Amino acid sequence: MTNNGHTHNTHSADFNRKNAKKGEQIAIELAPHKHEDSIADGSDLDPTITEIAPGVLEIDTKLGGWEHVTAGYLLTGERPFLVETGSRSSMPTLKKAFTKLSLSPNDLYGVAVTHIHLDHAGGVGDVSELFPKATVYVHPLGAKHLVDPTRLIDSASRVYGPLLDSLYGRLLPTEKDRIKVLEDSEIIDLKTRTLKTVDSPGHAKHHLALLDSSSEILFAGDAVGVRLPDIGILRPSSPPSDFDLIKAVNSLNKFKENNPYKIALAHYGLVAIDPQELLDEAIEIVTKWAEVAERAFLNQSDITDALTTAFGGSFDNVDPKHKARMETLSGIHSNASGLKRWLEVKYANTNSTENKNTAGGKNN
Ligand SMILES: [Zn+2]
Question: For 46-50, 196-200, 315-319, which range has the lowest pLDDT when averaged over its residues?
Fold first, then answer.
């Protein structure tokens, strides 16, 4: 496909504006947007790159051709570093961003994924091929799945169904010696800044967030939830098969202790709300969803129905187009099945350790 005659602005902005106030939002539209809703594979979309803090670029990776749904973050400076690739279907858009930012094959120092779900890590194999010197950083529990994605793709196909190929795309393997695993509180030295890891299970057991020393932005992946700017409502993300409420809340409290200046979500963008407030809201919301699910589970009623009754109404006034995107990223059905699985494990453990029947039977 051709690019419909868009002018491609050469990238000339100075991304190390020392005079810019910390966290100040500086919008740099590098290219005009393309059409909104017609493209499923994102293959012909110009990236939108926004400097959200000095040396921190938000790249709209445009899953499904949608704006403000999936973000990657590029930290510029002596050792350019990418946080999240987005799905493999976003690679053409991401490649255009690299070109606009004049990143040559030897330039990228590293790429980290907050976790290995395909909307975050699907492009990792491609990025490691494009940048042969870049190290790929991942949680210890995610590493082997980047080397051999077979099981990851199998489980993604169960969760995503036909959307695996029509929307997300799969994942190329990454060579083992290109990968470095990151434990909790590890430091990635990018010379002009460091990134500190925050092991943050809950959404997934292989989830870690990254705190930038320079902007003090926390790249929180999906651990806080999904909050699309076009909707402005935070929704927890509790997909199968790892979701665990206690771990999720512990991770959110850990984020609070790290006291970030701002939080950047993968879905989507830098959140204007004060992080302590946002994190309190995230704790409250995920707890409420889990309570509603647990009540339904114990009553042997349908968890999806219970969640829809309790929370579906908050989206009544939302544009159906945006609502559909939210359902794709963190749909009630997916959250219900993650919560159900968590409850099954929780009550199986309760029954076996306490030898009493508190579960009230299986919800199946
Ligand atoms: Zn995600």
Answer: 315-319
Q: What's this model's pTM, rounded to 2 decimal places?
A: 0.86
- Ligand 1 centroid from CA 35, angstroms: 23
The pLDDT-based confidence of 346 (bands split at 50, 70, 90) is very high
How many angstroms is it from 242 CA to the middle of ligand 1? 14
CA of 115 to the centre of ligand 1 (A): 8
Cα 357 to ligand 1 centroid, rounded to whole Å:
36
CA 10 to centroid of ligand 1, rounded, Å: 31
Mean pLDDT of 331-335: 94
CA 19 to ligand 1 centroid distance, Å: 34
Q: Please write down the HEC assignment for all residues of the chain.
A: CCCCCCCCCCCCCCCCCCCCCCCCCECCCCCCCCCCCCCCCCCCCCCEEEEEECCEEEEECCHHHCCCCCEEEEECCCCCEEECCCCHHHHHHHHHHHHHCCCCCCCCCEEECCCCCHHHHCCHHHHHHHCCCCEEEECCCCHHHHHCCHHHHHHHHHHHCCHHHHHHCCCCCCCHHHEEECCCCCEEECCCCEEEEEECCCCCCCCEEEEECCCCEEECCCCCCECCCCCCCCECCCCCCCCCHHHHHHHHHHHHHHCCCEEEECCCEEECCCHHHHHHHHHHHHHHHHHHHHHHHHCCCCHHHHHHHHHHHHHCCCCHHHHHHHHHHHCHHHHHHHHHHHHHHHHHHHHHHHCCCCCCCCCC
